[in-house]
Amino acid sequence: MPIAATLNPSSLLRLDTNPTLFSRSVQRGTARPLFCIFNPAATNNQTGEGVAIKKVTNVFSKKILAKRALREIKLLQHFRELMECDLAAIIRSGQPLTDAHFQSFIYQILCGLKYIHSANVLHRDLKPGNLLVNADCELKICDFGLARGFSMDPEENAGYMTEYVATRWYRAPEIMLSFQSYTKAIDVWSVGCILAELLGGKPFFKGRDYVDQLNQILHYLGTPNEETLSRIGSPRAQDYVRNLPYMQKISFQSLFRNANPDALDLLDRMLAFDPSSRISVEEALEHRYLQIWHDASDEPSCPTTFDFQFEVVEEIPEMKKMILDEVSRFRQMVRVQPGAGAGANQAPQVPIPNNYDRAGYEDPRPQEAFNQGGWNGSDLERDLQGLDGRMR
User: Name one GO molecular function term (predicted).
Assistant: First the structure.
């Protein structure tokens, strides 16, 4: 199915105004609902499939909203898919999942990350709600609204990493503790959190706020060594960690008694507190837990890196023109490309929940730290939010 990320549905597709056009809401975020369209007036003429429309309102009212829409549209052109459900719905449905499901999901996430990272893109908001799944257990990564470019040059990389607002429960500790730089390892940490959630059936590091989030990470992983502590960029956060009682690491075997030992070994390597000790995506794909799936010839890299030059644009009229250019390119592409067929059914199947309410999903939303009256939390809480703690 094609994906259409829009400012106005009629700007991309010729749709009638029948109120029954939007058959169901697939996802409702704080400001950008995603609708699934099955009305015959809004289908792919070549395949007969329905289309999805992401409605973004007031997109040109602020520079940050226009830039975010432009960024996501461009990224969706680079990595685009649509599926039936998300992994959050699967986990919270209560249906039994097997180790084979976990292996399949984690392997596919890592394959997607390898492709994304090879394009010099960090996703920065990996979580179950941003992983789309169909009944054949095919999984795709979505929601690139917080993605940024990555460079091996620390100075160049620092320019890409503003506005970090990923969901708290899946955020790597180096972000909260303001390490001097961060790398692709931040996405690997999020995958580790997702694996722990699959094993336990609930979020693993479920902090009430940023201080509690750090406390939970330290509770399970233990006090980091002196070398790691010295790399904490926030003096306030460094003092806070040093003044806590020493904590021993809790073994994952004691937390997930029925889990595959190989899964726990991979989890341990993904959730390394120090990002320099964390397993890489390529290493994780070769881990013995995923050996039944691993096939280097079927784990492609992106043939081209993503061009983030548009990030320097600051004027809304220019952003608007660039968005319309993307719309034009999208129209040309879908008119000449036939719809892609379904992928091979190799994974175990999973029923798709039909009564899942995304509005009721309780994960802390990005940008939760901001309020119109200014900052009301503690200084430590502000520091632990990393770059997204800056007032805009």
Answer: ATP binding
- Following DSSP, what letter does each residue of 237-296 receive, concatenated? HHHHHHHSPP-PPPPHHHHSTTS-HHHHHHHHHHT-SSGGGSPPHHHHHTSGGGTTT--G
Burial environment of residue 214 by CB neighbours within 10 A (0 to 12, 13 to 18, 19 or more): buried
Rounded CA separation 167/27 (Å)? 16
Contact by Cβ (8 Å): 269, 285: no
Residue 312 has pLDDT above 90, yes or no: no
Instruction: State how far the Cα of 173 lies from the Cα of 238, in Å rounded to an integer.
Output: 12
Is residue 364 one of the residues assigned to a domain? no
As a 3-state breakdown, the chain gives helix, strand, coil percent values, each rounded to 5, of: 45, 10, 45
User: Model confidence over 177-229: pLDDT tens digits?
Assistant: 877 677 899 999 999 999 999 999 999 999 998 899 999 999 999 999 999 99
Q: Which residues are designated catalytic? A: 125
The residue behind tokens 């904590």 is 247
Report the amino acid identity of residue 258. N
CA angle 59–322–12, rounded 5-degree value: 65
Q: How many domains does the chain have?
A: 1
Report DSSP letters for 166-224, one per residue: --GGG--HHHHTT-S---THHHHHHHHHHHHHHHHSS-SS--SSHHHHHHHHHHHH-PP
pLDDT tens for each residue of 341-363: 334 435 566 666 655 555 445 56
Which pLDDT score, from 0 to 100, does residue 116 have?
92
Are residues 141 and 126 in contact, defined by beta-carbon separation less than 8 angstroms?
yes
* Dist. CA 278–CA 276, nearest whole Å: 6
Domain with 208, as residue range(s), is 94-312+370-389
Q: Is residue 191 part of a domain?
A: yes
The answer to whether residue 146 is domain-embedded is yes
Question: What tens digit of pLDDT does each residue of 231-256 get?
Answer: 888 888 899 999 999 999 999 999 99
CATH number of domain containing 134: 1.10.510.10
16 found inside a domain: no
- Burial of 226 by CB count in 10 Å (0-12 exposed, 13-18 middle, 19+ buried)? exposed
| Cut 0.85: pTM above it | no
Of 49, 125, 115, nearest in space to 80 by CA: 115
Greater confidence (349 vs 79) lies with 349
